[in-house]
Amino acid sequence: GAGVSQSPSNKVTEKGKDVELRCDPISGHTALYWYRQSLGQGLEFLIYFQGNSAPDKSGLPSDRFSAERTGGSVSTLTIQRTQQEDSAVYLCASSLNPGRNSPLHFGNGTRLTVT
Amino acid sequence: AQSVSQHNHHVILSEAASLELGCNYSYGGTVNLFWYVQYPGQHLQLLLKYFSGDPLVKGIKGFEAEFIKSKFSFNLRKPSVQWSDTAEYFCAVNVMDTGRRALTFGSGTRLQVQP
Fold this sequence. Notes:
- The structure holds two protein chains of two kinds.
- By secondary structure, chain A is an all-beta fold.
- Chain A is built from no helices and eleven strands.
- In chain A, the strands form two sheets. In chain A, strands 2, 4, 5, 6, 9, 10 and 11 form a seven-stranded mixed beta sheet that branches. In chain A, strands 1-3-8-7 form a four-stranded antiparallel beta sheet, with no helix packed on it.
- Chain A is globular, with a radius of gyration of 13 Å.
- Chain B is an all-beta fold.
- The termini of chain B are far apart.
- Chains A and B meet through strand 4 and strand 5 of A and strand 5, strand 6, strand 10 and strand 11 of B.
């Protein structure tokens, strides 16, 4: 269908609470990526999925962060015990395959604010 | 680990001025290079890409970029900017030798074109 869909678009949460962010990739895209964009910073890589497995999770900043992907489609990024430094825009991207000829298609992101 | 530097954080130009945004990367091996653009309120989208061959690549909307291997650079250019080019521009690199699939992004350059 349309592009990459992320929900919610905005999330405000209190410090210490857990949050779940959702990503619906483009149908048929096997590769899925999570990035984080903080104010004044570039895009920080978090984790990459190929199908349901995550061969590269080197960017997850701490063990409070986890992600899963089911059915080779939807992915959720979970942040436990949120901290103020977790405030950022979380971007999801998908590509047809992880090869170099498949550009990334980004969603609009989830803006997370931890108060 | 590879890194991408965009030295111009905020550029202000008048319409019809020429544009050049700098991008340097740190890895000396085989790389794929990209420029992504984020228009206000929209998601990131691919502007152009370099994989191999002619080091001067042309993208959408009159943009082009030149890969200079000896300088580890991939600068973005446009001869004459328009107000509609106001956006944030991100350079990204994928290092082919490592097998890592995720792109490494620069911190972005915010371009403001004044009418």
